[in-house]
Amino acid sequence: MCGIIGYVGPRPSQDILISGLARLEYRGYDSAGIAVIDGEGGLGTRKRAGKLQILRDDLAAHPLADGTTGIGHTRWATHGGPTDANAHPHLADDDKLAVIHNGIIENFSELKSELVAEGHTFRSETDTEVAAVLLGREYRASGDLVEAFRATVSRLEGAFTLLALHRDQPGLVVGARRNSPLVIGLGDGENFLGSDVAAFVEHTRHALAIGQDEIVAITPQEVTVTDFSGAAVDVEPFEVVWDAAAADKGGWSSFMAKEVSEEPEAVANTIRGRVHDGLVQIPELDGLDELFTGIDRVIVIACGTAAYAGMVGKYALEQWARVPVDVELAHEFRYRDPVIGPRTLVVSISQSGETMDTLMAVKYAREAGAKTLSICNTQGATIPRESDAIVYTHAGPEVAVASTKAFVAQITALYLLALHVGRVRGALSAEAIAEQVAQLEAVPEKIARVLASEQEHIEQFAHWMADTRSVIFLGRHVGYPIALEGALKLKEISYIHAEGFAAGELKHGPIALIEPGQPVFVMVPSPTSSPLLHAKVVSNIQEIRARGARIIAVAEEGDAAVLPFADEVLRIPLAEPLFEPLLAVVPLHIFAMGLATAKGLDVDQPRNLAKSVTVE
What we know:
Blueprint: E1 3-8, H1 13-24, E2 31-38, E3 43-49, H2 52-61, E4 67-75, E5 90-92, E6 97-105, H3 108-117, H4 128-142, H5 145-153, E7 158-166, E8 173-178, E9 183-186, E10 191-194, E11 206-209, E12 214-218, E13 223-227, E14 236-239, H6 255-261, H7 263-271, E15 275-276, E16 279-280, H8 289-293, E17 297-302, H9 304-321, E18 325-329, H10 330-333, E19 344-350, H11 356-367, E20 371-376, H12 382-386, E21 389-392, H13 405-424, H14 430-441, H15 443-464, E22 470-475, H16 479-494, E23 497-502, E24 519-523, H17 531-545, E25 550-556, E26 568-572, H18 580-598
Parallel strand pairs: 17-18, 17-19, 19-20, 20-21, 22-23, 22-24, 24-25, 25-26
Antiparallel strand pairs: 1-4, 1-10, 2-3, 2-4, 5-6, 6-7, 7-8, 8-12, 9-10, 9-11, 11-14, 12-13, 15-16
């Protein structure tokens, strides 16, 4: 979950490294550091615990001699706490070699014992320093950084991306990856490495995706990629479709505020180019009709917010494609010996495409013979490359750790997939698809109406609730996963207890939590399109209202039945049941952000969390 950047070229590297790390800080913000080979051939490093600004201030007060070869790192702590000593880079070979690392080296303890027995000493508690010392030993044996890398990675177990430079080989940065992200940026007389294209997108949009168990060496004029055995490999080029400005706040108070405002655009962009004459045609799935007609079951795998998007998608896939769907947490899936085979389609959902739990579940599914399809927001990511098919969301870069616009884009992609598969399998007529497409295409404007009409109101009562210690969210049908998402968002960024429940479960235990003053958000179904569910949810509201709860209802415009029982009503435009989640979740995102802001918390970088979870 760390941010990594490497640079070789004619420009002073420090500015490039620091600006790249600023775009990667969402991946880790416990500490940060850089290493630079200066113009005199010296290796200078600086690393500090805390957020990147602390390192910036230190460099401003005590500058390093600059050079044109460098690596930089922002850390999310695994082995060892967030201290200066544990921050990256780590040094070896008499401080001539610097290494940065993303992931976990699972056999670091055995390797460390071996190195200590040889007389090596360590200055940190990290697994990364073990790799650095091992690499230093191999470099002294070979005198070649690439060959030393090859010998080192053959000893490592686990998930890792490693970058290194050596004082004796200026103009060279070497990287390796196993189960952890690494991409290459191609410039004019300069080249870049990064854990994400955000690291270098302000300098180039031309990129290469490095594969599993591969080593890359970059110089200003050349990029060489080989596998761990030394054989040359082909690399997949791609163009980054967004520019650096898309990853800037653009005057917003936070990235999360900006990204919530972009939810209409995220939905619209995910639809764009995939609807023709009222039918859904997803270009990435051309020629794959046989895959969809040959399945008898779908399993959706994901974690956190993405799993809740999958739960919403289950309703659409079953209703429109008429195929049974299970939704499972990716980190549980492969450890329970699931029954899957050639007629199973495993759909993975990951904003980053690097979520380690999900990646390993995808690999497990493929090894078991299942077909795999990924829904992802990030070009060049690992999960899409490991899958048989891919549907990209087009939410644009999402920097805030807590996902908002990527969530609505994931639901949109799942709806498009369901309509596509429904057409291929003959489960939906062209007329029925056109009706659903018209509803989906109306969603962006409806989300914009929610933002315009409700945001100020929601932020105001969120401010009043800043001292709240617990919030409950209830929903039925597609409102249930939205209740779960509302609770998760509040936990993530405000650090208060929040739980989401299926409203029908209320009398089966959760009602014991209701006491006077308890805030309860209720997702109220449409009284026109879901009259039976609406009546039952209103009954649930009456039950908890009678016990003194404070009710905040998310209800359709014109629904008067909730007014006698709700303390606050957040209105959403009329929509068919399957499209209500895309509208109902918006007030919940605004509320979580508003409450956290009222508490004075950092909504973009909540404690203990990182954007891309690249360790199991």
